């Protein structure tokens, strides 16, 4: 096995396992939780960026200086939004958790389990909420306005993971973490969960030639997530999982074609969003202005019984009902 093949197969699990264990021992050593999450996440970015430089999956997805500038601004915005949201909500949520435990006479969280087993449970529960919020972002018009900007990049590389509207951060993070806090998960578990989610997010968006194999049935890997960023609606309305692909399997939205390695194009078909940070921040309110075609993002049944229209006229007519998303 060559060096490239070795890293293709081992980098993904090694980085996830290594960063989780490192975070675990830092927490035990008494380091502040916020510092652990920030430090380990930034440290993990270095090997990911090096792998992306040396063994890209697609040459056409290499980020340009212009891409870097706007996505780094998003990184700062996303980080500040997450910190502010945690500051505003953690105290109240932990108080609600304590009240719930008192009312029930016990904590709902299995604190006696080994810490890695607690992390696995946190991933399953957290991803359930994240799955439905993410799926709603593709089927509910208001949520789509908040989420659309994340799909605006026509290249999938590590920094495109940070391309999120602050309101999208609030929705996704809240759906993933609040249920865990209410159930009584410890700060230790939340730190490991946060590190895992941050590192996994970089890996699933990274332009790296990974070989995931059977891990494609466990995690929401880059192999799967690239199809979620396809410009073709039927392909992008799949693989909603944040960390795990479990709930996509359960609810029938997992997609991994056998005849193609990657989507032909990334981005949003029919939406031309300016590559400008301020325009991105205003996108929930200006999405109609960027839309050149009325785009239906909700899932289509095999035999549609509604009228799907574009700016140029009807595509398929079955009944006099129109569904419009934008």
Give the oligomeric state of the chains in this entry, treating copies of one chain as homo and distinct chains as hetero. Answer: single chain
Question: How many domains, as an integer?
Answer: 2
Tell me the distance between the termini.
50 Å
C-alpha Rg, in Å? 20 Å
**What kind of sheet is the major sheet?**
2 strands, antiparallel
- What series of H and E elements makes up the topology? HHHHHHHHHHHHEE
Instruction: Assign a percent range to the helix content.
Output: 55-70%
Strand portion, in percent? Answer: under 5%
What would your notes on this structure say?
It is a single chain. This protein is mainly alpha-helical and 326 residues long. It has two domains: 64-198 and 213-292, no CATH class; 293-326, no CATH class. The chain is built from twelve helices and two strands. It has helices at 3-28, 33-54, 65-104, 115-137, 141-147, 166-183, 187-205, 222-228, 233-236, 246-250, 277-281, 283-290; strands at residues 308-310, 313-316. It has a two-stranded antiparallel ribbon. It is globular. The N and C termini lie far apart (50 Å).
């Amino acid at each position: 096995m060559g060096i490239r093949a070795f890293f293709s197969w081992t980098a993904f699990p090694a980085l996830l396992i290594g960063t989780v264990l490192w975070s675990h021992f830092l927490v035990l050593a008494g380091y502040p939780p916020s510092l652990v999450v920030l430090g380990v996440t930034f440290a993990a970015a270095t090997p990911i960026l090096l792998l992306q430089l040396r063994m890209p999956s697609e040459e056409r997805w290499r980020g340009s200086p212009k891409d870097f500038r706007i996505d780094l601004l998003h990184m700062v915005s996303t980080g500040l939004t997450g910190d502010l949201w945690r500051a505003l909500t953690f105290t109240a949520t932990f108080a609600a958790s304590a009240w719930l435990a008192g009312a029930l006479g016990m904590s709902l969280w299995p604190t006696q389990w080994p810490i890695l087993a607690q992390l696995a449970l946190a991933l399953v529960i957290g991803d359930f909420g994240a799955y439905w919020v993410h799926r709603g972002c593709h089927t509910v018009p208001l949520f789509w306005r908040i989420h659309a900007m994340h799909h605006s990049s026509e290249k999938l590389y590590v920094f495109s993971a940070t391309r999120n509207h602050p309101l999208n951060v609030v929705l996704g993070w809240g759906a993933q973490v609040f249920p865990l806090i209410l159930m009584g998960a410890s700060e230790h578990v939340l730190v490991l969960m946060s590190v895992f989610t941050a590192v996994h997010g970089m890996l699933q968006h990274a332009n790296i030639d990974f070989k995931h194999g059977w891990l494609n049935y466990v995690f929401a890997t880059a192999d799967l997530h690239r199809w979620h960023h396809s410009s073709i609606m039927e392909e992008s309305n799949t693989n909603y999982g944040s960390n795990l692909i479990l709930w996509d399997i359960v609810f029938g939205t997992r997609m991994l074609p056998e005849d193609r390695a990657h989507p032909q194009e990334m981005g949003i078909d029919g939406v031309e969003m300016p590559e400008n940070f301020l325009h991105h921040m205003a996108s929930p309110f200006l999405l109609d202005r960027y839309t050149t075609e009325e785009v239906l993002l909700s899932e289509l049944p095999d035999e549609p019984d509604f009228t799907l229209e574009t700016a140029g006229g009807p595509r398929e007519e079955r009944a006099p009902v129109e569904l419009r998303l934008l």
